[in-house]
Amino acid sequence: MSIPDAQIHPVATGAASETVAKHQDPQEITLWSGWFCPFVQRIWIALEERGIPYQYKEVNPYKKEKHFLDINPKGLVPAVEYKGKALYESLVLLEFLEEAYPTVKPSLLPTEPYDRAVARIWVDHITKNYLPAFHRLMQSQEPEVQEQARKDLIEAQKKLVAQVKGPYFFGEQFGIVDVAVAPWIVRDWVISENRGYSRSQAGEAWAKYAKAVTERPSLLKTESDKEHYGQIYGRYLRNEAQSEAAKAIRAGKQIP
Ligand SMILES: N[C@@H](CCC(=O)N[C@@H](CS)C(=O)NCC(=O)O)C(=O)O
């Protein structure tokens, strides 16, 4: 039987719980988080990378409580309150943090407009090609569909890594493209252990990039214990998850 969404582990564990403990005081930025969520992790990484002060608040987005729907009417994490005003959508939030804190270095966006546009092209690739393939690979139950999804994911990884200067997308500077994809790289054990995927299938360059990204301290600091992710991803692997993302993938629609 599937575990009801309300019974997911309620709070961050492991290294992430230490990071949460350090971010309890009210700040200009409140991060409304689900500890397990890859979209949240994008924002969490960005805040940690740039040292922007924030208060961490845990919410179970599956419960759709009124107080949270008032912050994000979509009922999804991440959401951010900035000086008491609400914002949501992880990619919008990443860009917002750049604009709201332009002098806090290191910036995650390159300086030149051309390079910024290039970064956005590859973030778009992650949204349109990488994430749908990853989620289809997790959720599909039919071997042929899984095989096609695995191939699509490998292709998306090869295309992305062909643009990587190394060790990160824009060279030495860890940036927005790396942040956008990192949470799905650190979760690739789900498909390695269950769907016949391995990093080397996308080539040595991908394996090297994946290693560099997953060793980034901001990523390590926002990771909970594996066993608690296992409970959540088990439902995706059995195609029982009832999240908006899971329903969209099942219906062949874009991830909301
Ligand atoms: N497009 C959104 C997706 C956010 C999202 O799907 N968050 C999930 C958790 S990982 C959520 O809040 N799910 C609640 C639900 O599906 O009801 C973003 O980029 O922020």
From TrEMBL:
- Alphabetized UniProt keyword annotations: Oxidoreductase
Q: Which residues form the GST C-terminal domain?
A: 112-232
InterPro entries in UniProt: Glutathione-S-Trfase_C-like, Glutathione-S-Trfase_C_sf, Glutathione_S-Trfase, Glutathione_S-Trfase_N, GST_omega, GST_Omega/HSP26, Thioredoxin-like_sf
Matching PROSITE patterns, A to Z? GST_CTER, GST_NTER
Q: Write the protein's name.
A: Glutathione-S-transferase
Q: Which SUPFAM superfamilies match?
A: GST C-terminal domain-like (SSF47616), Thioredoxin-like (SSF52833)
Q: Which domain of life is it from?
A: Eukaryota
GO CC terms, sorted:
cytoplasm
Ranges of residues in domain GST N-terminal: 27-105
| Species the sequence originates in | Agaricus bisporus var. burnettii
One annotated GO molecular function is: glutathione transferase activity
The cross-references to Pfam families, in alphabetical order and at most eight, read: GST_C_2, GST_N_2
Keyword field contains Oxidoreductase: yes
